[in-house]
Amino acid sequence: MHHFSNHKSRTSVAAPRPRIFILGAGGRLGMALVREWRNTFSDYEIVGLGRQEIDFENPENALQAMKAFELKEGEVIVNCGAITDVDRCEREPSLATTVNAVTPTLLAYLASESGVRFIQLSTDYVFDGTLERPYRETDRPEPVNHYGVSKYAGEKGVLAASEYHVVVRVSWVFGPDRPSFIDQIIRRALNSTEAAAIADKISSPTYTYDLACWLSLFLKEESPGGIYHLCNSDHCSWRDYGAYALQSAAALGIPLLTTVVAPLKLVEMKNFLAKRPVQTALDTTKFSVLLGEPLRSWKEAVDEYVRCFIAG
Ligand SMILES: NC(=O)c1ccc[n+]([C@@H]2O[C@H](COP(=O)([O-])OP(=O)(O)OC[C@H]3O[C@@H](n4cnc5c(N)ncnc54)[C@H](OP(=O)(O)O)[C@@H]3O)[C@@H](O)[C@H]2O)c1
Predict the structure, then answer these.
(1) Could you tell me if residue 192 is inside a domain?
(2) Fewest C-beta atoms under 10 Å: which of 8, 33, 45, 281?
(3) pTM of the predicted model over 0.70
(4) Which ligand 1 atom lies nearest to the CA of residue 177?
């Protein structure tokens, strides 16, 4: 009895945990963040919000929906919501601007009024891809398609709302929550003796589990705002990436019909509506200095993904 009353008084005075809102919680990265952070952080309440709760297509409604949560100082919003289909953005530029830029900007202003940090996910596609070395945060964005234009506008809007907000550019995201290139090429090699991928487009794959770990650094109030590039280290072509994934799967005994990936050229991709930047590897030095250690390579991350989610 004594024990019970103690317990009661403790819970009744306990302060509510600060909330971390994850927008776009139904997507590849959003789902991973919700799951991993719920497993990792008992001192935060992780609130995943999908399109049903906050629809970015109507900025005013999205703002009202977010206001209803009565944000409190010290809480955090992480925006993984976006139209990520590059060709759809080209066909529907006005919608892309609304979803990828206008609504995130409005929400970022709401956040800054409430003392809440806003973390905006962005993309390597803000760059034109002509540089012959990995892109740094100080390199000038020059998007070549409307997806990139809309995401760059979102970055500028979010950072204008507060210098405490964070823009995190990622590239070639893969993970267990939504199939991506790596799953497609392994599925292909399970059913066919031929596989092919673009050999002259370069970037850096990014594993959602690693992102969940790295992004948590920005939940600390003392961590700085600004732009960060975040992806697994080293870079590769789609073809290298695909071939490595197939070798990794074959080494684990997955019965593939081929591990050879024939080279395709970007210019041969006649079904691509939007122009794609060619070389958009991201330099992650700024973030690894903040973290205090190097980021693990994409090959290690691919091995782990294949072992845990494809062979397992
Ligand atoms: N995937 C990549 O390779 C990649 C590369 C570079 C940067 N990024 C960036 O990383 C972030 C996360 O991407 P991801 O890979 O997780 O993409 P994703 O799987 O496409 O997730 C995006 C989420 O946003 C949602 N969304 C789309 N329109 C919306 C709207 N009007 N209102 C509310 N939600 C909406 C989508 O819902 P539906 O599924 O219902 O459409 C989806 O759940 C994005 O900012 C993206 O630009 C991704």
Answers:
(1) no
(2) 8
(3) yes
(4) 19
| Cβ < 6 A, ligand 1 pocket | 24, 26-30, 51, 55-57, 80-84, 99, 121, 123-124, 151, 170-173, 178
Residue bearing the CA closest to ligand 1, atom 39:
27
Domain range for 116: 2-178+206-232+281-298
The CA 219 to ligand 1 mean position distance, Å, reads 21
pLDDT tens readout for residues 192-232: 999 999 999 999 999 999 999 999 999 999 999 999 999 99
Distances (CA, A) of 27 to 21, 236, 271: 14, 24, 24
Which of 22, 77, 80 is the pocket-test mutation for ligand 1 (most atoms within 8 Å of CB)? 80
Distance 9 CA to ligand 1 centre (A): 43
Please give the tally of structural domains in the chain. 1
Give pLDDT < 50 ranges for the chain.
Answer: 1-10
For residue 228, is it within any domain?
Answer: yes
Contacts of 263 (CB under 8 A, 6+ apart): 196, 197, 198, 199, 200, 239
pLDDT the model gives residue 269: 86
154 CA distance to ligand 1 centroid (A)?
Answer: 14
| Confidence at residue 270, expressed as pLDDT on a 0 to 100 scale | 84
| Phi and psi, residue 22, nearest 5° | -110, 110
Query: Could you tell me the CATH number of the domain that includes residue 122?
Result: 3.40.50.720
- Of the candidates 123, 124, 108, the one whose C-alpha atom is nearest the C-alpha of residue 163 is 108
Pocket perturbation via mutation, ligand 1, pick of 22, 29, 169 by most ligand atoms within 8 A of CB: 29
Question: Residue 265 domain-assigned?
Answer: no
Encoded tokens for 102:
């206008």
Q: Name beta bridge partners: 227.
A: 167
